[in-house]
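input
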Amino acid sequence: MNIIEQADEQFKLLDKIPLGAFVIQSDYSVIFWNCCLEEWTKISRSKILGNSIYEYFPHLNHPRYTSRLDQVFQGGPPAIFSSQLHQYVIPVALSPNKYRIQHTTVTAVSALEKNKFYALFSIEDFTDLTFRVQEYKNLRDQALAIAQERQKAQQAAEVANRIKDEFLAIVSHELRSPLNPILGWAKLLKNRSLNEATTARAIDTIERNAVLQAQLIEDLLDISRILRGKLALNLETVNLAFTIEAALETVQLAAEAKSIQINLHLDLGIGQVRGDSSRLQQVVWNLLSNAIKFTPSGGQVEVYLEQIDSQIQLRVCDTGKGINPDFLPHVFEYFRQADSSTSRSSGGLGLGLAIVRQLVELHGGRVWAQSPGEGQGATFTVSLPVMQQSVELKMEDRSIAEDSYPLGMLYAPLQGLRLLVVDDDADTREFLAFLLEEQGAIVTSAASAGEALSLIVQSKPDLLLSDLGMPKVDGYTLIKKLRSLPAHQGGEIPAIALTAYAAETTQKQVLTAGFQLHITKPVDPAKLVAAIAALVQT
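output
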């Protein structure tokens, strides 16, 4: 009987235990390999018996292990190998993505020959860790996904910060630019060294740039109203053909200055829409202004108005610089411009199209842009529902600043009217007093609410004109105190509110406080005079 047969007889009981076991002798040849190991490793007993363990597991030939095995072969105490031994001694054959771990104990077993021992490897706690490894992989994947999301968020934040910085730079540039000719010509006028023609040109330049600056500020206020959900709409039945023609009158001079031909293709037989006529005119004005701005001299702008099923469709097509395909998805976003560099050829804050989108969507419609590419023009299309009463429009009380007094009264003398002007800004008080006195009014000025109340007690005026934003006691508090007085002490004096906080004020707030009218700054002189006359005569 050879040594393998003897070992098989000696260790046959190891075939009946649910543990892996094998035996090697001092020359490291395998003399026993039990059934469990055959199943776990997929190495048959007939193949491995009689061969060196190194042929299958060369990692076992390491001083860390051989020194302990030498002790076993000499009859020494059992040696416990770490759980990582499976990587070297028993690389168990499993299906892909399967993982196992084991604890291996090596024990000295007496051989049949005198003073010789075998090394018995018993492999226990053979545990399938597939679930735990998969769980780890899932956690790792989640961690990677979170890291990627954070990176994307960081990149988005960096882009947003860059856009914000660019926008602030543009705002600063665009607001300062009109100030240059305004202040420059104002200083020249102050010296009174200009002839009549140059003086007239200076005044026209100052007025034109002041109007431009007011429009820039109004765009900022509109965006503020939109973002806070405070944009006011005054619903009525609107004929878009009339709206387009009214907007065209506003931009006609700018088009003529660049020799741009604007051609109208309006279907006058289409239905009407439900909306705010002034806001819809603002939409058309923005689209036409945008087309004129980006169309070179001698170009053309085509305006189409037609009805497609239940939708009214307005298209503004130009032969201008077109839109880069990469920027096309961002054309209606806030604070975005295709060219935000200091060398850009076009001015503006880049808010016009963002305002257009919001106004159109408030009217239950949609707007989109198309362009074949740079240098190939662009088309902007607005689609609005035809008189859909079910469209939900967000309405708030409209500011009386938007022509809430009789428009027919473009000029109304204020001869003999006693007016009290209250404003903490000295320049504003002086301007209003001069303007109203030129119209025949008797003006008294006050720099604070307290001073105004004292003057009213001394001499009751015919009308109060008060700023809202004042330190310590504001215009709201002033009017409330005034309305608490009896009529003979001025409690029923008509009052108009003036404010630069247009985005914060609504007609409801003004009327609740006790004012009859509200006018935003900068004040149009003719409209202010008409408003005062209309209020006093009621």
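quick obs: The chain has four domains: 3-128, 139-227, 236-385, 418-537.
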